[in-house]
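Support request, please re-run this one:
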Amino acid sequence: MEPSNNAMNIHINDFDGPLELLLHLIKQSQMDIYDIEIEKITNQYVEYLNKMKELNVNVIGEYFVMASNLMVIKSKLLLPKKDDLADENDDYEDPRNELVNQLIVYQQYKEASKVLKKFKKRSSMHHSIPARLPTVSEILDFNGDKIMNVDLIKDAFDAIIKKNHHYHKPYVHEINEWHYTVKEQSNWIITKIENKDVIEFNSLFNENDNLEKIITTFLSILELMKEHFIVVEQIDNKIYIRKK
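Re-run finished. Output below.
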């Protein structure tokens, strides 16, 4: 059998053990795992280990144990069956069976390992913290601007958050890019005000809004107030936003 060039381009460190190396060679040779061409795969395996030795690579003992097992299986297959003259119904145990079972179990283990790694990667993108939302003072520094009614904005913020159904659930935030920006929400608010001159504060929020949208919208309101584009005022226990 001619050497497989692909087999020579792989390194022993690429594999977790002899079973994984065998699976690689079986897949590379496009063999049926349930009908392994034991002579061909043994030659490839031994050739691979010999190549590693020539390159002065330290190959651990378990790889040579597997090579020995492959040779034993190969020799058993070369021996004539004891019951050649017996009935065809007589049981015959294929010497490859144990190896095939090991490979199948190992393959299932590897697939399960891949799934667990995906879950681990996905879970690393989340973190749980005690439910805590930023205060208005934390969101934006007013720098002592007396024009803004800080208490009014703070009370409005608290009221909107308490109405939001997400407030009472554990806060789990997925780490990714936000879907809302202060600039976009500011333009959205300005458009609504230009159409009506005055809008009710609560009309900017919906009970099903996620925290990202709520906080971004509040930031936008605060920025617009700071830039003197809008005024927030209370009339008859309701809060309104109007153009400056």
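The CA atoms of residues 25 and 41 lie 7 Å apart. Residues 1-8 have pLDDT under 50 and may be disordered.
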